[in-house]
Structures are given as C-alpha cells and as structure tokens.
C-alpha cells in the first residue's frame, strides 16, 4: 500500500485494507513519522465511555515532524508565505529553517514566562505570522493551545479561558481587517479582568497602537525575544497527551472544548492533507480559513507543515480592497491549491465576474470547499470561473470534532458530483441510521450520519467534562459517534451532506447553538424570552432569525429594541453571531408542557407558512397567526 493514493483503484484498495485491518493500515502510515518511542499497541477503543486511544505509549513531538524532520531536505524551502491585509504592505516569507527558529524562540519565551508541559495557553491574535509561530511554540513545549478566533467578544474569551484555566495569553496590540481596526489588547484586558488563572500576557506589536501594559503581567514579545536562544529542545509527548483545545458550539449550553491529542491528530492531518489535495513538492497551497477555526489548525498549519508543503496565510478578507483580492493573491504567489468556504464563493459570485476575469489563475490545479453545504450554483461558478473547468472541486466534509477531513473526493483521483462530498476517506466508516438508530443499508436513502469505527484524528474528550462528550456524541445511538448532520447516499454510495439536524446553526461556515444565541439575547434587560432558528440565506448559507418577547413597559420603539438586542449578542458572543432578523413578538408557540415548537418558527423564518403541520398541541394557537402576520 502506498502512502499517497494516485488512482481511484488505489483508493478502493486502500479503503478495503483500512476496513479489514485498520490497525495495520494506520500503523503503516504512522511509520512515516519521527517517533521518540514507538507505540506498543495501535488502538484501544470503545464508544460507550467513550475511550479512544491511538498509538498507545508512542512518544513524539508534532513540531519535530512539522519542522526538524524537514530541515535536511527542505531547510531552504518556503514553509510559510504571509500576505498582509493591505496589498501595499510587503508580504513575508519564511523557509522551514526560519520557521523552525521562530517557533523555537517563542517556545523559549513561553518557558521563560513560566509555561510548562500540560499548561493551557490561550492565543487570541489576528492572522499574523506570530499566530502560527505561537501555536507551534506551544506544541514544542507541550503546552496545550486554545486558540480563540479574534472576532469573539471579551465575554466569550473569558468563558473559554476560565474553562481551560489558561495561565498565559498570547495576543497583539491591535488588528486590521479590511478597513476595520480592532483594539485586540483592549478586548483581552476586558476579558482577563474576570480570569484569575491568567498570570502573563505576551503581546505582539502589529499595529503600533498605544495599549495598556500592566506591570508584572504584560510583556512585549519583541522584548522577550531578545532574551532567548534560537534552539529549543522539543518536549517529548505521549501520543495521547492533549495537543490542543478548540471550543465549538453544540445544541446545548456554552461552547465545549474539543480536545485533540498529539499522535493521532498528527497522523490524520498529514494523511488527509496529502491525499485530498494531492500536494506535489513544489506546490503553493492556500487555505483561507482563520487559524481560530479547526480548518486553520489542520489545513493551514499542521497538515501542510507535516507534509512539508508551502502554506500561505492571509491576514485580510476576500473583499478588500475589492472583490478580486483572492484572485490577485493567487496570481501574485502562484497558488496551486486553493481551499475556501462556500460563503466566500457566494459573496464573490455576487460581486460579479469582472473581478475574477481580471486575473489569469493559471497556476491553480485543485480547488477545495469546506464548512457548509456548497449549493450547485456556487459549485459550478467555482469550477468554471475560478478553476476554468480544469481543477477538481473537492467538497470536504468534516467537523471540529473529527480533526480532519472525513468524506471528500481526492483531487484528480475520485469522481466528482456537484454538492456531494463523495466517498469516505480510507479508515472512515460512515453509516446512516434512522430515528430509532437502525442502520439503513441500502443506497438512495437519507438518514442521520454516524461513524461506527474510530479514526486517529477524532475527539478524545470535551475539556474538563468527559460526560458531556459522551452525551453530545456517543449517547444518541448506541455504539456510534453521531455527527449531528443529516446526509443522503446516492445510488453509487456517494454522500451528500444536508446539514445539521440538531439545534446548531451554521452561519457562513461558523457554528452557533440556538441556545447560545438565545442566552445572549436574554441578557438584555428589555428581553423576557427569545427563540432563535436558522433560515436559508443566499450568501451565508444560514441566517439567524430571532423571535423576541420584550417587556411591556418598554418605550415600544422596535428599532431601538433591535439595536439593543444586537448589542447584547455582540457583547456576549461577538459580531459574527449578530441576528439577521429580529421579530418582536407578544408570545412564542408553546405546547401545553411549555416547550417551544421550533418547527413552526423555522417555517415562519423560511417564509413557508402555508402548511405548518399539526398545531393542535399548542397552548394558544392565536400566537402563531400573530407571528405570521409580523414575519420579516
Ligand atoms: O454541518 C456540517 C458542516 O459544518 C459542521 C462542522 O462545523 P465545524 O465544526 O465548525 O467545522 C467546520 C469545518 C470543518 C458539520 O457538522 N460542514 C462542514 N463541512 C461541510 C459541511 N456541510 C456540508 N458540506 C461540507 N463540506
């Protein structure tokens, strides 16, 4: 069996082997890496507790595999290209040797500031090179990184820091995104006012804005770097030691900290990267995701660096200075493989073809999509106008919890079908089940998407609360990992992901729980109760529709109330969770037992009120008429 699959026949062979002998299959792949000590046993698992362990007693450091391992053969190869927000600012490029040095130095800064193996370090930073260095620096010394997307509010950050009991925060003075300027350090200051675990804040100078530096707590990275060596011995980690925590939303309560471990995640991110994108040694690869999300972790940083690729990191947004920016960057750096989200494609599609046609895009070989279902129109536009019909579009389905891509075409290897993720990767055993949890074996069916066998990159636990992990993913269907997604399987066995079947809304590829947004809305003093649902949105995939009951003694100015509600959501979660529509209502459709019938609200939000189904269990059916009359 070869490590990189080159034809569909080889894919089928690898798939068969991975099912018949999973341990042998993954051991063979794991052999390709540098281990300080080999594993005793490949896999131990049960999905009841759950307990999943890969490469038991294996010892390694993932950064030795991302960096040191390449120095002999790829020391002078470009590892990271950084493209700034403003195209007038000069880009920066780092070879593997330079990246190694940067990572080692920041790792030493962390050690000097008291960080030890196992400590949690929060990283809240814009898309600047120091973000990449910092993530790897944590991994170098065995600290568990928890990257928080720099668009989250101070309250969200504080919740995450407190949950992980992080002792150090790495951040920057400010950030520029498009024409917006965000005082990042000020947000951090506000957050850690309620985070007693934080002892040190290390600040990168990016914008030069004046910031508050608290004596004894805050230090400048550039000053700390003066004090350290260029070498840093990598901490030896157990394969099952945590590598990072990444918070993601579920259908209940606050976001949970998904925990990934060193060995399995390494093997899985490398294997999926090289096979899905079919990376060739001289390719320039660009994933547009922010490192604050799982896509940025696995396919901007770890996967490409493990493979020895040249990976591009972009600080800006697709529409600044204009909607041709992505394509300008592709031409400028000769990007061969381009990986983005359907939301970005749809917004660029709406901006008009001229922006694409002004660029050659000759370097492109492979296009990827991730984060949400890609509608056929967007798929074709991407394929025809960006890929000029010569680049396959790999529609990659996966989740924060899966660590890496699960269902996808392999570029230039697998058959493509628009809006279909396609076949599972080797090692992945998806099944569809019906409501009672029975497996649906036939093709041309629809069901709940589950996994019946572990894979190395999968979630191990939710930080600090293992029971929550069990309840969220392993309790719905006995012996299965439940994804929360519904899917169809066509007559050839190709999968099409339909979307979430739980109370999770996917807005522009970002996950929010309806309960999470409702909690934020309910923080507002004018609000009595709220209910949030998703509805189809042309650009974002799904939009957020909030039905809100306000206090009667309020001034009655609806616009004022809406602004207030938005402010609460921005303060509690961040701008990315702003409701698109807010309908002020007098009541919510509740059953006699007090449960909100969301099905009805979803129909109203979708504008499909002709057939609301059975409403006989409603306490007060008049509420529905009123909601329909006021629908936005
Ligand atoms: O509903 C699926 C959707 O995004 C969810 C996972 O979100 P998150 O953990 O934030 O990770 C996003 C990036 C991996 C899934 O449960 N999703 C992700 N990729 C696709 C998708 N839906 C359809 N097609 C995809 N390619």
TrEMBL record:
<dbReference type="GO" id="GO:0016208">
    <property type="term" value="F:AMP binding"/>
</dbReference>
<keyword id="KW-0547">Nucleotide-binding</keyword>
<dbReference type="InterPro" id="IPR025110">
    <property type="entry name" value="AMP-bd_C"/>
</dbReference>
<dbReference type="GO" id="GO:0019427">
    <property type="term" value="P:acetyl-CoA biosynthetic process from acetate"/>
</dbReference>
<dbReference type="InterPro" id="IPR032387">
    <property type="entry name" value="ACAS_N"/>
</dbReference>
<dbReference type="InterPro" id="IPR042099">
    <property type="entry name" value="ANL_N_sf"/>
</dbReference>
<feature type="domain" description="Acetyl-coenzyme A synthetase N-terminal">
    <location>
        <begin position="11"/>
        <end position="66"/>
    </location>
</feature>
<dbReference type="InterPro" id="IPR000873">
    <property type="entry name" value="AMP-dep_synth/lig_dom"/>
</dbReference>
<dbReference type="InterPro" id="IPR011904">
    <property type="entry name" value="Ac_CoA_lig"/>
</dbReference>
<feature type="domain" description="AMP-binding enzyme C-terminal">
    <location>
        <begin position="516"/>
        <end position="595"/>
    </location>
</feature>
<dbReference type="InterPro" id="IPR045851">
    <property type="entry name" value="AMP-bd_C_sf"/>
</dbReference>
<keyword id="KW-0007">Acetylation</keyword>
<dbReference type="Pfam" id="PF00501">
    <property type="entry name" value="AMP-binding"/>
</dbReference>
<dbReference type="InterPro" id="IPR020845">
    <property type="entry name" value="AMP-binding_CS"/>
</dbReference>
<dbReference type="GO" id="GO:0005524">
    <property type="term" value="F:ATP binding"/>
</dbReference>
<dbReference type="GO" id="GO:0003987">
    <property type="term" value="F:acetate-CoA ligase activity"/>
</dbReference>
<dbReference type="Pfam" id="PF13193">
    <property type="entry name" value="AMP-binding_C"/>
</dbReference>
<keyword id="KW-0067">ATP-binding</keyword>
<keyword id="KW-0436">Ligase</keyword>
<comment type="similarity">
    <text>Belongs to the ATP-dependent AMP-binding enzyme family.</text>
</comment>
<feature type="domain" description="AMP-dependent synthetase/ligase">
    <location>
        <begin position="68"/>
        <end position="454"/>
    </location>
</feature>
<protein>
    <recommendedName>
        <fullName>Acetate--CoA ligase</fullName>
        <ecNumber>6.2.1.1</ecNumber>
    </recommendedName>
</protein>
<dbReference type="Pfam" id="PF16177">
    <property type="entry name" value="ACAS_N"/>
</dbReference>
